[in-house]
DNA sequence: TGGTAACAGGCT
DNA sequence: GCCTGTTACCAC
């Protein structure tokens, strides 16, 4: 009675997006379980692909869709399930709701190290006459997938295969590498060592030293530790092992990214009344296992983190685990240390700064129940925690919680799903909640928890709005108003620090000819190339195209071609001319690309190695330095001009957030906001830090425009190399949707996307706004299914539910 | 008619 | 995504 495994194969296409049945070989019958990775033969060529077992049936049953002979699966890649039943179920739910392939959702749940890769290997059966081709093979094998072959080489190899000189072999690579460490166990007791000593020569110093070490270390020790603390080398221990003095064993170890640092333990702080009330409400829900979502609204400095920490402690006290999500950018050492300081080794941290190996190790610690608290960015929403008692999402309004490529999921939705599954409360925290969440709190779907006061009763820093139009009238092209410049000088005199934020969106350096107005553009995309002074090149931020900076205008051959705009580089340059001795740390996508660079820059700033921290949005969150008394926003309104209904919300959130960075300790702070729209409500209300008012005003705007939270949205994008193909298909689709969807649903478009061409593909989009559309799931699934057939003609269709950006 | 290139169908 | 069998087209 053979078992049958239901397998999702690692072939991300519409047609293969369903389980396939495989025979389980009898020797694996007891070993195969749902949630394990396997290697299976797929297709006629006998190629091997990776797959995930999602179910095991006891008995062969007649399958309604397939009547052929089942193939046996080739290999089992795991000894224990890497996805538990909860996560398997979640992957299914996520796939249907985000219109993603099941295998893609499964892959995003696993650490990268567990992603299988299938390789095609060419094996030489006879000697190859051509010397060049023969040279490609090592030991009669060539990894066709990994090798970078020229088209003519591929062609010639195919001919060799046809004539039977080589044949193809397939293998599925399992990249999960467990790090091991050698441990030393003394085989001699202290008494025996005394006996052994006279038997070795007196001048065998290394052996004598080794015996000294063994005398003091009778318990097993890591080899690395012993070689570090003595003059002995690995070879001395291997020699000792040969003599039978010690045994060497390999033990599994974790790559602990925080191992070296000692983190000071922190104790629970005394809560003020509002905090205590919030903790009590959350703790109540944990104890009664109620999946109640809470919206914790508190201004910067009102002590939200302490509420999280004490609620997590309550979950742990119940013998449960806790999951805490923070935006990637807020995962600073400061934040991580705070959680680690409270919960110590029980904490696992997941973020993009870790190497694949480190991530895998943290993941395994969670999976093996060695970590009960998980802190991480978006993808940590899938942490393999069992028995979750509490889920926290800090800065719930952050757009980075939505993944902008497939699967296009929002971590908040994932958390709410998991909370239901585990009967655990969810705490969504923010100083400036998203309108969607706040509206849900209004309707009682989320329970509202308020922290209206700052700890220490500290007043919020005064915010000055500077009208940059005045500056423009004075005919200066400077990025700095006189007021802001004076404030900066004052900090320099006092030895205090400043933070300057540049709203990067749509605001980078480009090259333009002053004679003919020519702007250097990307040959593949409809965007201007961006100047990068660090590499001295012009780069395209969409396709990666790179070229040298022109000295002569390619259009009119004038030499008057120069730089425009205001990237952080240019601002830094201007700052150095205005304030010659100033020390600046620049923080943007370019300076933080390298692993650990982000942490290093922040540490340097914290250690007062610079006077000014100049950066993009990434500096708005989570920084807390006592000597920062000035925060300046150079261009508050660049985002306001964007054709996106969330522009005001984003601007308000950003300004409110960055203002909170000034004067958090005993020194009072000051905030300057430079803008060309000083009368805009988002800026005026951010100045007053009045979220409540902003919420009311913005809700009115959304109501007028039929936008979220009054309507749901979906974005359908089609792209093709031929602009006409994309456009024509989208016009057809719009007609189709009009016929199938209800009258209350608004169909906007199709329109070309604001960047109509990226990487030589043309993009068209349709936006759906709907209130109630019971068949939407089916209709959109069919849209994708139909599009599959046209993919060969180069058409790609994508669906994004509740997109965070419409441009 | 043979040889190749482009295409459509199917994968358990 | 990749493999294969089929078809279309051209040179002979």
Automatic annotation (TrEMBL):
Cofactor(s) listed in the protein's UniProt record: Zn(2+)
Binding site for Zn(2+) 1: 513, 516, 553, 556
GO cellular component: primosome complex
First-level EC class: isomerase
NCBIfam families listed in its UniProt record: priA, PRK05580.1-3
Record's function text: Initiates the restart of stalled replication forks, which reloads the replicative helicase on sites other than the origin of replication. Recognizes and binds to abandoned replication forks and remodels them to uncover a helicase loading site. Promotes assembly of the primosome at these replication forks.
Protein name from the UniProt record: Replication restart protein PriA
Organism annotation: Furfurilactobacillus siliginis
Encoding gene per record: priA
